Amino acid sequence: MSDEQTMTDPTAERGRRKVRTGVVVSDTMDKTVLVRIDRKVTHPLYKKTVRRSSKLAAHDERNEAHLGDTVRVMETRPVSKSKRWRVIEIVEQAK
To answer: In the predicted model, what is the mean pLDDT of residues 57-71?
Structure first.
């Protein structure tokens, strides 16, 4: 596909965006939630499975996600200094 065709064709495929699932650990900010992403990796030397986690600031336009909810977030353009993700759905509500 040529560059000219890419610019005019709205159905042209964009780059795939990363999607992650995690748990909301903070919802005190307006339109922002902190999501903890847990993953298991094998230790390079000892070969034991170790849990690692990272926290992402995600944009929640309607303030629907609350503490303890499991949410799915998608990579997006920078919304602010720290927000590069947005909440796309609430997978499970906290009990």
So the answer is: 97
